Automatic annotation (TrEMBL):
<feature type="region of interest" description="Disordered">
    <location>
        <begin position="27"/>
        <end position="46"/>
    </location>
</feature>
<protein>
    <recommendedName>
        <fullName>Phosphate-binding protein</fullName>
    </recommendedName>
</protein>
<comment type="similarity">
    <text>Belongs to the PstS family.</text>
</comment>
<dbReference type="Pfam" id="PF12849">
    <property type="entry name" value="PBP_like_2"/>
</dbReference>
<feature type="signal peptide">
    <location>
        <begin position="1"/>
        <end position="24"/>
    </location>
</feature>
<keyword id="KW-0732">Signal</keyword>
<keyword id="KW-0813">Transport</keyword>
<dbReference type="InterPro" id="IPR005673">
    <property type="entry name" value="ABC_phos-bd_PstS"/>
</dbReference>
<keyword id="KW-0592">Phosphate transport</keyword>
<feature type="domain" description="PBP">
    <location>
        <begin position="45"/>
        <end position="324"/>
    </location>
</feature>
<dbReference type="InterPro" id="IPR024370">
    <property type="entry name" value="PBP_domain"/>
</dbReference>
<dbReference type="InterPro" id="IPR050962">
    <property type="entry name" value="Phosphate-bind_PstS"/>
</dbReference>
Amino acid sequence: MVLNRKVLSAIASLPILLVATACAPEPEAGGDGTPPAGQPVSGGGQKVAISGAGASFPAPLFQRWFDAYNRQVDPNVQVSYQSIGSGAGLEQYIKDTVDFGASEAPITDSADRLKSFKDTHDYDPIQVPMTGGFISFSYNLPGIDDQQLKLSRTTYCGIVMGKITKWSDPAIAADNPDLTIPDLPVTFAHRSDGSGTTFVFTNHIQTVCPDWTAGAGTSVDWPVGVGGQGNEGVAAAIQQNEGAIGYLSYAYAALNDIDSALIQNKAGTFIAPSPEAAGKALLDEPVPDDFALLVPDPSGPDSYPIVGLAWVMIYRDYEDDAKWQAMRKVFEWSLGAEGKKVAEELLYVPIPDALVERIKKEFDTVNAK
């Protein structure tokens, strides 16, 4: 996979294990125990611990954001984030065991989860997008380098549904007349846990594959393939099996140096995964009042076809005002200029300024005591 030096440097600075807490060591204090000069403190120097859980898709970005905020902005604010999958994160959010949840599937898309939340909390949830991203078809094919493989819509539908089982299949050869592809079995790798990445992926597959019967959701009954826990598990399954192909948040494909295909969009163009192409697919669309924007098959000629947002879910009522104010500052910093730089370095799609202003107004509706 060919990445520029800036991206490689940013990715290399990530911890290997993204399931760990996203907090940095506290900077050395002065002789009186105060933080170093120039470092703002929160709440009169009181430490604030914030917990979140959910989607693995934005975990590399969250890790960098929360670490940078702790190091560069306020050493007294520590945010821990568990990369446990969107489904599990939404369940923890509903049960009020975290300060925020995160998902690539809006909670409003699930009638059962929305009802569970309203039954527990007696109000509607707040979901706001923090970043956009895109999902790659990533593969392990000896002799085929990054972005050499092309997959038409008919071909990748056939792979996902188990109709194409060998890399020597005529459909793959027709897409790639100039490549010599090894004659290996096709092993399709998918998520085994409840996953927002799966929601975005299957929402697209359901839209473009006429014979797809498994539906769209955070978890589906896959007709074929091997499962992995989290984006991390799918990445490992691809790396460990020659002939494997699966769907990944592109940030994970880049992080693990896994090759990714050019895939055909609605306009018929073969598009490489990139933040620019994903941004064209996402950011030209009108965002509804509840922020639950879904774009299962963007129509632009230069749009990457498998895209989605990652939302954080927060509560309308917090018992601890200091915690809410600290959390709000973390999110607003992440959505601001410094946070956008990090998002771009890690190959995510930053939220545009006009939408950030809407998000800030939504934050104003939170009640804290």
